Amino acid sequence: MFLLTRGLRQRGDGLELTYWGWSESGPVRVVLTGQRARFFVERDLETRAGERRPSAFRTLLGAPVDEVSFTDRRAMRAEADRLRRQGTAAWEDDVKPADRVLMERFITAGCKVVGVARQRRGFVEYVDPELSPAEVTPTLTVSSFDVESEGRDGPLLCVAIVTGDEERVFVRGRGPVMEGVRYFDGERDTLRAFLAYVEQRDPDVLIGWNVIDFDVDYLARRCEANGLRFTLGRDRSRARVIRGGQANAPAVAMVSGRVVLDGIATMRAATWSFERWSLEHVGHALLGRGKSIAKVEDKLQEILRMYREDLPALIGYNLEDCRLVRDIFAAAHVLDFAIERQRLTGLTMDRRAGAVAAFDYLYLPRLHAKGRVAPSKASHREAVASPGGHVMDSVPGLYENVLVLDFKSLYPSLIRTFLVDPLGLATQEGPQVEGFAGARFSRTEHILPGLIETLWAARDEAKRKEDAALSRAIKIQMNSFYGVLGTPACRFYDPRLATSITRRGHEVLRGSRALLEERGHQVIYGDTDSLFVWLGPGLDLAQCAQRGAELAELLNAHWRRHVREVHGVESALELEYETHYARFLMPTMRGSEQGSKKRYAGWVRATDGSAKLVVKGLEAVRTDWTPLARRFQRELLRRVFTDQPVEAWIVELTGALRRGELDEELVYRKRIRRELDAYTRNVPPHVAAARQLDREVREVEYVITTRGPQPVERQTAPLDHAHYLERQLAPAAQAVLPFIGVDFMKLGGRQLSLF
Fold this sequence. Notes:
By secondary structure, the chain is an alpha+beta fold. It is built from 21 helices and 29 strands. The C terminus is likely disordered.
């Protein structure tokens, strides 16, 4: 079976662990009875509770440990807390029993179940079977659902659910006969019918947009208000939403046997990025269509109007939200990514954040295989900052033919090459590789380098097979290892680990630059894992590509030789020729002659004659700038890179701004990240605008008027066009124009004099 959800219950004879999964013959529930919670303590440490027995394991430093197990998890927690208070923390007291069972068997997603099968209502159950890892490719049934209500706390209006092409809507009230639509007199009957349909349709995965924080949470609260059990899961147990214990911690939907996937959280985990995460915006970006509702000042009031006056329109709106989420998941391969991430890390598909947990899932069973146990997360030392990636001073200018040379997965390759590893750091006997800050790593006892080597090969194979979801999942996981080792939340936290990675990266980047400059090439910028090399004019695309390949091989050969001779290890560093910018702009820092960092633009030409503009960090790609400023800078860059005149165009555009012809592009959009009352001093413009609304908002659209900032929907004063010229267009222009000898303020001054 393919694992879907897992859970734990306290029973009189111990813990009962429950695992739900998909199989070709239908849903499967595995129940393991009489399980025990456990941790480890050093052998000479006294304990006061639990069943204790010797183990063959040792700590990272080699001290022998005993296993202490409990039939009651609360008793285990109490003893672990007592040990921590006295300064002798237990080992692995924070590993969840349901996870430990799987980790000990190296099970991440696919699982072979051997035992006696019992047919239950809607699923097959195994009690205390044998479990082992297996390769399973699931074909999951997915239902997209969406709730419409009278606000967050008001009664339900309707709920729609779409499974493939099958569509259903459950509506409180009466309306016209429509295919797939059912009407009910009260909220209780509407909720009951929806839950009955989910049970009958029996999807493996429920998806939506902000689905846990709103839809599932809302349905749970409305069921409670109506005296109904919220039986969204497969065994008719009560589903619930558990809020995170810390601020901004994600909520979790506990639904037995069904995975609840939120589109926003899962796409973010897959490194998707959008200017805004509204369903409307993402739908247009990926599908070319958005929500079926008029653009109005108050969306809730429009929903209530449709409910009263145009019920078919509300039903269509409700269904279209479900279709949008379904189609976004398909277009972005969201479910494929979630499946592959679970195969890779062992984290359930609905896990919304979990780089540290994924590291544990991969590392701990391999550590146990070497006879060692891990410290608990709370027992590390205070955090010590390690240096970040090396960012070189840039050489500002407007260039022709700039190459970007990029180290492929630099930090994972440094871990592989220099054997950076928690176990290797703790193992002080035998041959070692020198790190930084006093660190030395064992040449024989390590886990992470081999794990990365395996993942690296798997990613190469995934790319060969054009399996984008698996390739993306592996890349994210490999690149997360450095961040995990550098956070105090990691049970293996030691600042020497992250420092030995970043400082080695500094050494590699500086050494690469020195070698290139020795060969007569000018490096105009470098950032963490990339070098920008200026070739100069007079070269065509083929010549630049050949030069890029030659420089990459030069550096790769150098590091293979250097690492072998100096450190006695084989280099896994791999530099690639990544990009050729036919034209390239490295601006100065605003108000300075010094070159900027992490801000540049380039013009990339393809062999078929097409070209594209690439912008990093400049106003053109910053969402806190107005659409006009962003469009203006992109067009300005395009004209400069293609040697087109700009003066007359700037005069015309600033004139159009003054005449009010571009007012629709002058809207700022910013998120409200705190309560409005929390802003007491230096109130920013977007907060001042939001305070003029008669409702709470998480994002505000506003303009700058002659009377200051005002929300778009409550604008009463004329726009302050001088503000937009001086604070939006001028800074965007000044990043570019000095390099071609044009003064924006002289051109714009013709317009400024008219304000």
